[in-house]
Amino acid sequence: TEPLEMHNAADYRHRPTHQPNPNAEPMYPNAAPIPQSHSYQPYAYGAPPVDLNNPMIQMAAASGAQFFDSGHRMIQSNVQQYVSVGILRYYFSVDTSYVVKKLGVLLWPFHHKNWQRQKDMDTTSQGFSPPRHDVNSPDLYIPVMGLVTYIIAVGIYHGWTSSFKPELLGRTASSGLVLVALEVFVLKLGFYLLDGPRASLIDFVCYSAYKYVGIVVTAVVHFMLGGTAGYASLLVTGLAMSWFMFKTIAASLVPEAHGTPPSTKHYFVVAVGLLQLPISWCMGV
């Protein structure tokens, strides 16, 4: 009988003392449920990643490229009726070195010391050196590329949020150009009232449209890092543009205003500088 007793003892040791009842009430009804899986979200504290395979984003990019081609053909066919080829060649006379230096001045102008434009009587723009020879000279290349990139960035953003419509690109371009035109009008009117030196209308357009650079940078930061970082970038780039306009107008466009008290000129320059922040805010993605 001994082997039988040992078998029964072993069987007793492996027999469960409690059989679970699936219909029974839980022992701790108020306990929080244990999650079955812990899915890691890399963008929990930032912006979701941009899926470049998203059909809406691809449609936005394609529409942006088509919009750029249409605008380029329109400019080629119409602008030359009002602006001579020589003047356009002057404002597009840039090279890689100039573009890199100019972008640095636009994004961080606080370390730039000399804001005076270089004289060159052989050029067609009021005796100033072309952009490739002077980083302080205005150009049209960066504003045009900035405008195109800005329109495409707005389209990609709305494609990212599944709210893209093709007509959005036209409205974006129109609203941006209207704000630039209003600022150019303010600059031209201020120069007239202050009896300042004559300045080319294209110079004003260049200076005003430089803000597209900071707006595009802000859009990229917003895409990659989220809204908080985007607002911080907007503040930094807006202040940089304010300082750039303040120094440029004070040193280059308004070297002196004959017959006008200096304080009036300074108020105008400060007002134009402060105007950059709200304009950048309105044009932000």
Automatic annotation (TrEMBL):
Residues 1-14 have a biased composition (Basic and acidic residues). It is found in: Endoplasmic reticulum membrane; Golgi apparatus membrane. It comes from the Eukaryota. Keywords: Endoplasmic reticulum, Golgi apparatus, Membrane, Protein transport, Transmembrane, Transmembrane helix, Transport. Pfam families: YIF1 (PF03878). Residues 1-33 are annotated as: Disordered. GO terms for cellular component: COPII-coated ER to Golgi transport vesicle; endoplasmic reticulum membrane; endoplasmic reticulum-Golgi intermediate compartment; Golgi membrane. GO terms for biological process: endoplasmic reticulum to Golgi vesicle-mediated transport; protein transport. It is a multi-pass membrane protein. InterPro entries: Yif1_fam (IPR005578). The chain crosses the membrane at residues 140-160, 172-194, 215-246. Has a role in transport between endoplasmic reticulum and Golgi. Belongs to the YIF1 family. This is Protein YIF1. It comes from Cryptomonas curvata.
